[in-house]
Design goal:
The chain contains ten helices and 26 strands. By secondary structure, it is of the alpha/beta class. A hairpin with a 2-residue loop joins strand 24 and strand 25.
């Protein structure tokens, strides 16, 4: 069997491993428009300021011999420009065509370009891949003050990193708080205070309308009319599923490439996984893209097993986000704000805990700030629709842990025999 994988990140490498665990013979070809082995996108801000280098193994998801040891043919630095699902062929930007029996789309997301005048000026950057990170790193010598547009995970992190390097940073966010879909007002306030402590200027409830400068960007003009002098701009307003290939090929596309419970697209021989896929969200009950690493890894494996004909169902995932900004760390999962769910929350000093529970006593979401060690337990409860009615009153305790579970349940959970 011929298997072609478009993309070369988390979903792709996990798919390769799943295939080779069960199939040593089928050919696997990985195609990517980047010339690098699979690397960690969350470490790009660290790469920009020199905290990690491309010479370090921790920057990569797998060792340098990964492709050779798994008998994978790589076509790197080449872009897939067209899919022919009926002919089972993909076409590359150099005109070459690759035949397949099963195709996996693991081509991630593409940066969202907001309608801002002046994006073509020098000194304007994005931060979505190695090429963009290298460009920004080389330009840092010219940047003494920088405007970061968008306060999501990448925008907030690069703002923190640049501020620590002595750059005067202004972080502009359209909504009323940083990390808007990830935290509620209380949780975000911890990040607000920490960013300000680090010297970052926050501009909330405003947006960039234009950039100005002769050749290089010199000024950012906000919709409110405010003007900010700057040497550089980083646009980090998010990514959208890179679903153009699938749409052009006639596959079902909504926000992302729509897949069924087997990570299969509307064409039986084409699968999708990772940031490009629109799969089932078990918390909201709808299909939507959820661009996070753990789900990309799981979806890649499940897609691979199903390409081998194993009929393994994807039970769904949910949003999970974790980041540290300065001295503040948080983890959030599922639904973080709701007027319809039961809410348990407490704020004590530098710690914040919040849990959202449905009428059936199923945990639907949570936020932990600065006491995140037991996050895995809550993840398990959400995934397994665990009845929390008898234990939810202890969720707000700082020392919450397995000790609050009765012995019988702990034995069941840890799969041990009662002695």
């Amino acid at each position: 069997m011929k298997i072609v994988i478009v993309g070369n990140s988390t979903a792709a490498v996990n798919a390769v491993e799943a295939i080779r665990e069960r199939d040593k013979i089928s050919s696997i070809t990985v195609v990517s428009d980047e010339s690098y082995r699979a690397y960690s996108h969350p470490l790009l801000p660290n790469l920009v300021i020199g905290e990690v280098s491309r010479a370090e193994e921790r920057f990569y998801y797998r060792k340098a011999d990964f492709y050779e040891s798994h008998k994978v043919k790589t076509v790197l630095g080449r872009k897939v420009v067209k899919l022919y699902p009926e002919e089972k062929v993909v076409e590359l930007d150099n005109g070459d065509k690759l035949e397949y029996d099963k195709l996996l789309l693991a081509c991630g997301g593409t940066p969202i370009k907001p309608p801002i005048e002046g994006l073509e000026l020098e000194g304007v950057h994005t931060l979505t891949n190695i090429k963009a990170a290298d460009k920004l790193r080389k330009d840092l010598k010219n940047i003494k003050q920088c405007v970061v547009v968008g306060a999501g995970l990448i925008g907030s992190k690069i703002a923190e990193k640049l501020a620590k390097k002595g750059v005067k940073v202004t972080l502009v966010e359209l909504t009323k708080r940083v990390l808007f879909p990830v935290l509620d007002d209380t949780g975000a306030d911890y990040i607000h205070k920490e960013l300000k402590r680090l010297g970052v200027t926050l501009v909330l409830n405003d947006a960039v309308s234009a950039l100005s400068g002769d050749k290089r960007v010199k000024q950012v003009i906000l919709k409110s009319g405010k003007k900010i002098e700057t040497d550089g701009v980083i646009v980090a307003v998010g990514v959208a599923p890179n679903a153009g290939l699938a749409k052009d090929a006639g596959l079902t596309v909504d926000r992302g490439v729509v897949v069924n419970d087997f990570m299969q697209t509307s064409n039986d021989n084409v699968f999708a996984a990772g940031d490009v896929a629109q799969a089932y969200d078990m918390v909201s009950g709808v299909k939507r893209p959820i661009p996070i690493l753990p789900l990309a890894a799981r979806q890649g494996r499940i897609a691979a097993l199903n390409m081998l004909g194993m009929d393994v169902k994807y039970k769904g995932g949910f949003a999970m986000n974790s980041i540290s900004i300065g001295k503040v760390s948080f983890i959030s999962m599922g639904i973080v704000d709701s007027d319809e769910l039961e809410v348990l929350s407490i704020k004590r000093g530098d710690e914040y805990r919040k849990f959202l529970i449905d009428p059936d006593n199923r945990l639907k979401g949570m936020i932990l700030v600065n006491n995140v060690e037991k996050a895995g337990m809550f993840n398990w409860m959400i995934q397994n629709r665990f009845d929390v009615s008898w234990i939810k009153d202890t969720f707000l305790n700082s020392d919450f842990g397995w000790k609050y579970f009765n012995k019988a349940f702990r034995v069941l959970r840890l799969d041990r025999k009662i002695k």
